[in-house]
Amino acid sequence: WYQRRVRDLFGKQEKKYFIAGEEILSPVTFDGRRIGLGICYDIEFPEFARTHALKGTNILIIPTCNFDSNLANVFLVPARAIENNMVVAYVNRIGTENRVTYNGYSSVVDPNGNFLINLNHLKSELAFCVIPSSFRVPCYYLPDTRPQLYAKY
């Protein structure tokens, strides 16, 4: 029986093998960029990405094992990138193991919601992209956020 601290736990199975974490890691600086890390289910919580944005994260990396029916990569990854003015790299498993099919669709999305990489679900692929050092964004939400309001609830 193996236990590992994960911030957000998905379903009964993960709760059986993992212990929920109590904090969001701070980003690290690499080559002038602030890089944050989450895993899997974290992307499905807007507060997770927002906390990273408030900590100065420019690039958020999310390795995951999403099932065939989960479309977080289609809707949530671009939303998190746009609303937090950051690049989100969503790296998903692909293929079938023990009757579970993982949907692939790894992607890198810029702060405007554009896919810099958008892999499909049919085959295993390896892709690289250059992430520009800055982006022109039509709407920048962070200055207008009011976290003190959310803290009340």
What does this structure look like?
22% of the residues lie in helices and 25% in strands. It contains 4 helices and 10 strands, in the order βαβββαβαβββββα. It has helices at residues 11-17, 46-54, 72-84, 147-151; strands at 5-6, 19-20, 28-30, 33-37, 59-64, 87-92, 94-97, 100-103, 107-109, 115-118. Strand 5 (59-64), helix 3 (72-84) and strand 6 (87-92) form a beta-alpha-beta unit. The chain is globular and about 45 Å long. Residues 1-6 have low confidence and may be disordered.
Give the gist of this structure:
With 153 residues, the protein is of the alpha/beta class. The chain has helices spanning 11-17, 46-54, 72-84, 147-151, and strands at residues 5-6, 19-20, 28-30, 33-37, 59-64, 87-92, 94-97, 100-103, 107-109, 115-118.
Task: Produce the secondary structure layout.
Layout lengths: L4 E2 L4 H7 L1 E2 L7 E3 L2 E5 L8 H9 L4 E6 L7 H13 L2 E6 L1 E4 L2 E4 L3 E3 L5 E4 L28 H5 L2
Parallel strand pairs: 1-2, 4-5, 5-6
Antiparallel strand pairs: 3-4, 6-9, 7-8, 9-10
Helix pairs in contact: 2-3
Search tags:
153 residues; alpha/beta; two-stranded parallel sheet; globular; disordered N terminus
Distance between the termini: 36 Å
- Helix count? 4
Q: How would you sum up the major sheet?
A: 6 strands, mixed
Mean pLDDT: 83
Strand runs, count? 10
* Strand line-up across the major sheet: 3-4-5-6-9-10
The assigned structural class equals alpha/beta
Radius of gyration: 16 Å
**Low-confidence blocks of residues:** 1-6
Strand content range = 25-35%
Q: Residue share in helices?
A: 10-25%
Q: What is the general shape? A: globular
Q: List the secondary-structure elements in sequence, H or E.
A: EHEEEHEHEEEEEH
